[in-house]
Design goal:
Helix content: 55-70%
Number of strands: 2
Distance between the termini: 46 Å
Structural class: mainly alpha
Length: 208
C-alpha cells in the first residue's frame, strides 16, 4: 500500500469532510473498500487524515466489531507515528478487512456530521507551535490510549474517545493548536468515561 506522510501539514488543503465524501463515493462505486484500499486512496495525506479514517468507523451502529478492528489499527499506527516512521504498516488481517457499502453509508450518516461541526470551529494558525512535527510525536501516546479505549467492546464506549480523536486529528490537519488542546482535554474526559463504563460492566458481570 502507499506510504502515508506523517508530517502534520500534508493534506491540509482539503477539508476532512470533503475527503470523507470522496471516499464514500468511491466505496459506492466499488461495492465497498478494504482498510488498505481506503488508506491507499489517502495517499500521502498525513497522519491526521489517517487518524480520522481509522477512528470514525467505530461510530457506525451496525453489527460488526468495527470498534475493535479500527481501534486496533489506529493503535498500531499511533505507535509508528510516535516512533517517527515515515511510512505506514498494518498487518494483512487488518489491511484486508473489508468495509461494505452499508458501513460507508453509516459514516455519511453518523460520522461526517461530527466532522463538519468541528470544522466550523477551525481557525488555522492558532497556537501553531502545538501542531509542529516535533510536538506531534508527543500526541502519539494519548492517541494510542484513545485507540485502545475505542477497541474495547464496551456498549456506547466509543463516542467520547472518537470525538476526542476527531478534535486532535482536525487540529493537526488544519494546523489549529487550540483544537488539539480541546482534544487533549476531551481525552481525559473520555478516559474517565471509559473507566466508569469498564467498572460498571465488570460489576454487572460479577453480579451474574
Amino acid at each position: 500500500m502507499a506510504e502515508v506522510d506523517n508530517s502534520n501539514g500534508g493534506g491540509a488543503s482539503r477539508a476532512a469532510s470533503t475527503m470523507l465524501r470522496d471516499l464514500i463515493d468511491i466505496a459506492r462505486e466499488r461495492g465497498g473498500l478494504t482498510i488498505g484500499e481506503a488508506l491507499q486512496h489517502l495517499g500521502r495525506s498525513g497522519f491526521g487524515f489517517t487518524m480520522l479514517l481509522l477512528a470514525l468507523p467505530a461510530l457506525i451502529p451496525i453489527p460488526g466489531p468495527f470498534g475493535m478492528v479500527f481501534g486496533s489499527a489506529l493503535a498500531i499506527v499511533a505507535l509508528q507515528f510516535g516512533a517517527g516512521a515515515r511510512g505506514l504498516w498494518l498487518p494483512d488481517f487488518l489491511k484486508q478487512r473489508k468495509m461494505p457499502v452499508k458501513a460507508f453509508e453509516g459514516l455519511k450518516q453518523y460520522a461526517t456530521p461530527i466532522v463538519v461541526r468541528i470544522e466550523q470551529l477551525v481557525r488555522s494558525g492558532r497556537l501553531e507551535p502545538l501542531v509542529k512535527e516535533r510536538f506531534g510525536f508527543l500526541l502519539s501516546l494519548p492517541i494510542f490510549v484513545l485507540a485502545v479505549a475505542v477497541a474495547l467492546p464496551i456498549p456506547f464506549g466509543n463516542l467520547a474517545p472518537v470525538v476526542a480523536i476527531c478534535f486532535i486529528a482536525l487540529g493537526m490537519i488544519e494546523r489549529d493548536g487550540l483544537l488539539v488542546l480541546i482534544g487533549l482535554a476531551l481525552t481525559a474526559l473520555a478516559l474517565g468515561i471509559t473507566f466508569f463504563l469498564v467498572r460498571g460492566a465488570a460489576s454487572a458481570f460479577a453480579f451474574f
